């Protein structure tokens, strides 16, 4: 098929590349001419594992190209994916769908034949209904333009794998014709046994919000339990392994850490909480808000652990934070727990240097008040304490013996329970890990 992907960001670029990978001819659309030029040259403006290779391969063959022209996309494509941003609104609780409706309004005059618009962005329930009415009113093709909602369930850092090998595809369809179009575009994935869940549009919209809200609650639950373990002298890692064996609970996502972040999960939990309140589900809203409050408390909880490891406040201390991205595998620093902790320590008077293998440029734009170093060893110059805040593999693989001479004091706080603490202790380091008993 001929496919357009409107919006070239953390969602749109991986989706466009993956659609090309499964055999479609793809045109991506974005308003930023500089970004379009880079993409057409096969250069990736974001870091996502596996994406640069797909992008360079398919732009070179001509199967994937990019433009700023919606008219060109409308003339070219049989099906259009909307992958524009839906940031949190000014109220701090709901989605700003301005880009979704703006893209639809701009595309509508060029839709002169029957077509299907597939929404990928995360939105408030009812958005696809309103968007369908708008397009039917403004498009020359009228009611022959149909809107499907096909929420993404991508994990940043795994976006390509999650697009090409998802655990499920969810589509909310208004008609059999729209369902047929979706089945055709995803036929190569369905042939590999990927399950397709066909629902009404409202259910599809709620499925995405419910999935992320549940994940946020699961993360906040284990972080709350980690606080209890710290107070009791218990081991959250052993606790997690034990309860994760229960099939009703499961191990996935049940990792204590500095909290969830990124461009999706925090806003999705906020918006789903707001939807629960709007729909009158006040008890559900209270439960969801509690998960948010636990997550919001993580920087302060991390600071307490850091100061316990130091034996004094962070004021005047030289601290290196390993990690800037909100998780490994991406350069996305939106609502990054690592940067929130680094910024809090800076506010408390510490001199903070941040090292990340891919996210230093994006972090510098968000937090210019911090110091940065792109070299792991160089980041430790005169440091008195290291904080492991993002789960990049090269932090796990660091050699504690080789690094010891580079720091003023051998103190490490592992907020991800990532490293082999015994190996670091044998090399002379004082190690503290989240939700685990202190050992000398």
From TrEMBL:
Q: Which reaction does it catalyse?
A: UDP-alpha-D-glucose + 2 NAD(+) + H2O = UDP-alpha-D-glucuronate + 2 NADH + 3 H(+)
All residue ranges annotated as the UDP-glucose/GDP-mannose dehydrogenase C-terminal domain in the record: 320-421
In terms of InterPro entries, this protein maps to:
6-PGluconate_DH-like_C_sf (IPR008927), NAD(P)-bd_dom_sf (IPR036291), UDP-Glc/GDP-Man (IPR017476), UDP-Glc/GDP-Man_DH_C (IPR014027), UDP-Glc/GDP-Man_DH_C_sf (IPR036220), UDP-Glc/GDP-Man_DH_dimer (IPR014026), UDP-Glc/GDP-Man_DH_N (IPR001732), UDPglc_DH_bac (IPR028357)
Annotated metabolic or biological route of this protein? Nucleotide-sugar biosynthesis; UDP-alpha-D-glucuronate biosynthesis; UDP-alpha-D-glucuronate from UDP-alpha-D-glucose: step 1/1
Question: The organism sits in which domain of life?
Answer: Bacteria
Q: Which UniProt keywords apply?
A: NAD, Oxidoreductase
Q: Which family does it belong to?
A: Belongs to the UDP-glucose/GDP-mannose dehydrogenase family.
Write down what this protein is called.
UDP-glucose 6-dehydrogenase
């Amino acid at each position: 098929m001929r496919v357009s992907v409107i919006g070239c960001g953390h969602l749109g670029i991986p989706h466009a590349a993956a659609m090309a990978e499964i055999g479609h001819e793809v045109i991506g659309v974005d308003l930023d001419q500089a970004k379009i030029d880079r993409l057409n040259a096969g250069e990736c403006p974001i870091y996502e594992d596996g994406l640069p290779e797909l992008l360079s391969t398919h732009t070179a063959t001509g199967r994937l190209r990019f433009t700023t022209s919606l008219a060109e996309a409308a003339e070219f494509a049989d099906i259009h994916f909307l992958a524009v941003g839906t940031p949190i609104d000014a109220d701090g609780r709901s989605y700003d769908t301005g880009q979704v409706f703006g893209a639809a309004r701009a595309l509508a005059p060029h839709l002169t034949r029957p077509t299907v618009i597939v929404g990928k962005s995360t939105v408030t329930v009812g958005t696809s209904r309103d968007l369908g009415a708008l397009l039917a009113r403004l498009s020359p093709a009228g009611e022959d333009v149909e809107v499907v909602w096909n929420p993404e369930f991508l994990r940043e850092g795994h976006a390509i794998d999650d697009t090409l090998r998802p655990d499920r595809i969810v589509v909310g369809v208004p008609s059999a014709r729209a369902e047929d179009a979706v089945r055709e575009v995803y036929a190569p994935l369905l042939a590999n046994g990927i399950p397709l869940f066909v629902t009404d549009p409202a259910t599809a919209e709620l499925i995405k919000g419910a999935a992320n809200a549940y994940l946020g609650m699961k993360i906040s639950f284990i972080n709350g339990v980690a606080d209890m373990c710290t107070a009791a002298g218990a081991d959250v890692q052993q606790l997690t392994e034990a309860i994760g064996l229960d099939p009703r609970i499961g191990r996935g996502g049940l990792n204590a850490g500095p909290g969830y972040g990124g461009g999706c999960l925090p806003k999705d939990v906020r918006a789903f909480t707001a939807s629960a309140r709007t729909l009158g589900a006040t008890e559900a809203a209270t439960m969801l808000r509690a998960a948010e409050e636990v997550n919001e408390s993580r920087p302060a909880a991390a600071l307490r652990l850091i100061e316990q490891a130091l034996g004094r406040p962070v004021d005047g201390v030289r601290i290196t934070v390993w990690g800037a991205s909100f998780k490994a595998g991406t350069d996305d620093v939106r609502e990054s727990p690592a940067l929130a902790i680094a910024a809090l320590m800076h506010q408390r008077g510490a001199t903070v240097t941040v090292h990340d293998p891919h996210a230093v440029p994006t972090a510098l734009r968000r937090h210019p008040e911090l110091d940065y170093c792109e070299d792991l060893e160089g980041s430790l110059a005169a440091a008195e304490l290291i904080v492991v805040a993002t789960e990049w593999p090269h932090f796990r693989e660091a050699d504690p013996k080789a690094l010891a001479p580079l720091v003023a004091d051998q103190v490490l706080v592992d907020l991800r329970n990532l490293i082999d603490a015994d190996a670091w202790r044998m090399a002379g380091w004082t190690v503290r890990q989240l939700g685990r008993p202190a050992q000398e």
